[in-house]
Amino acid sequence: MKIENTDELRLLVECARGGSLTAASRVMQITPAAASAMLKKLEARLGVRLVERSTRALRLSAAGEQLRDYGQRALELLDEGVALVSEEQQGGRAKGRAADARLRGRIRMSASSDLTRRQLLPLLDAFMLRHPGVELHLSVGDSLLDIYKDEVDVAIRYGLLADSGLVARKLTEVNRLAVASPAFLQRHGRPAHPSELSACECLTFKIRNRHERQWRFRQSDEGPVLAVPVQGRRSTDDGEIAHGWALAGLGVVYKSELDVRASLAQGLLVNLFPDWIGDRLPLHAVMPSQRFMPQRVRALVEHLAQGLQARPSDTVAASRPHR
Predict the structure, then answer these.
(1) Per the CB 3.0–4.6 Å rule, which of 131, 307, 311, 316 could disulfide with 123?
(2) What angle do CA 146, 148, 151 make, to 5 degrees?
(3) Are 262 and 288 found together in one domain?
(4) How many angstroms separate the Cα of 264 from the Cα of each of 107, 171, 256, 299, 317?
(5) What is the pLDDT of residues 143-193, one digit of tens each?
(6) Is residue 88 in a domain?
């Protein structure tokens, strides 16, 4: 059993995108009857139902969704290869221009709100300037998207990965810091020890879809972990909002050093415990498949990895070197 032509895959992709055979046939510039016949022929040859039909709409079956996921990425790779070959044939690569400037196609990316606004946007702007043929569809938020269901090409995520079926590239590793504004510390005093956070107004937010009610610290990489229970009147599902609350002097927040780096540099926030090490967080670029990864996605991941590497001049008293 095999796919006889790419139109069959394109039809399945467009059916999922438009929710009907009529919408798919319009995009492909064929009649609805021809689209229906093509789909039935594909189902018969594969011996599996790919869509569930109703009087109002069409939705993919589990098998259809699986084939759509692979088919969409295969089509994008094919389109990318055709564009590159066509440009070379027509002399589209100007002398002295980098080969990767010819990247074409759409990248669907998701990332947390605070990290995106504080670190990723300048890197993404530089990448888009370098690659004018690339389209970026960016989803920002701290709730985890389903990489397969939501058709995400690359998700930037903190922490360890639970889904062994995904492909991940570690971009960098950073510590989490307990930080507060000078105004908050002036009103409430500065805690001398992490254990004193239990009596402080703490700002919490979701990490990987769950609130963390304990903040962890160590005095060395190999030292025992001090888990401090925290509480406060404000919690959110958006890390950028928690960051903003801290800047407004409303409490202590426990954030990735990447997220608060600029605020520390400007003196807007203070690292409360420079002698302690917070949780060490790996930051990954997570992708659905190594096998069907377009070159434009590989290039973006490499660009982010280079841009996110911590620079000594940027770490602004974030923490002392690990002992």
Answers:
(1) 307
(2) 95
(3) no
(4) 32, 22, 12, 31, 8
(5) 655 565 567 889 998 877 665 567 888 999 999 999 999 999 999 999 999
(6) no
